[in-house]
Amino acid sequence: MLDSDPKRECTASRVTALSGGSLGAKAGALHRFPLPPSLSGKQGWRSLAVTLAWFSPIHTLSERWQLAHLWLKSPDSKLKVGSKGQLQRSGADWQAVQRGTLQDEIFEGEDVSAFVDGDAMIVHVGCREDAEPLTENVPYALAITLEVDPVIGEIYTEARDRIQIRERVAAKS
């Protein structure tokens, strides 16, 4: 019998959402992740992992061989992960995580947060030229994982239902 791999599978207390797209130079995109309302007003351990990966076109004749640099800003959220409600990175400096073509950040905390059903965490992804000229869009993928102490309750179903509702509404437009 195989145990579940926490990096690949969701549980009642862990949910992962995947998104992506492509961006040109000086462009950005906002990604919304619905906050499970059952977390509001509860204290306990929670972890937020945000991972951005992209494929940069290259310039072989430049020492700055990547044509594009993508980055994500710290998530804008009422979900308090970090000390005193501020986002606090776990294990990495904010500049170090923006090198290369993969940005992986983990935020942890235990503070009580208050929000209402319908509130969402917003992750901004931006793109800039690293070596000129960037004439094509750069594909990227974004993964957001929210995990809480199992004693806090089940968050997977709440997040899944809110993501599906938003997709159905967007598809009709």
Descriptive labels:
173 residues, mainly beta, Jelly Rolls, 4-stranded antiparallel β-sheet, 3-stranded antiparallel β-sheet, 10% helix, disordered C terminus
Strand and helix map with partners:
Layout: E1 14-23, E2 28-34, E3 46-54, E4 68-72, E5 102-109, E6 120-129, E7 138-148, H1 156-172
Antiparallel strand pairs: 1-7, 2-6, 3-5, 3-7, 4-6
Give the helix proportion (percent range): under 10%
- The structural domain count equals 1
* Structural class by secondary-structure content: mainly beta
Mean pLDDT: 78
Largest sheet: 4 strands, antiparallel
Low-confidence stretches: 83-87, 168-173
Architecture in CATH? Sandwich
CATH class: Mainly Beta
| Morphology call | elongated
Brief summary of the model shown:
With 173 residues, this protein is mainly beta. Helices cover 10% and strands 35% of the residues.
Describe this protein's structure.
The chain is mainly β. The chain has a single domain (14-172), classed as Jelly Rolls. The protein is built from 1 helix and 7 strands. It has one helix at 156-172; strands at residues 14-23, 28-34, 46-54, 68-72, 102-109, 120-129, 138-148. A 4-stranded antiparallel beta sheet has the order 1-7-3-5. Strands 2-6-4 form a 3-stranded antiparallel beta sheet. The longest helix is centred in the C-terminal third of the chain and has 17 residues, at 156-172. The chain is elongated. The termini are far apart.
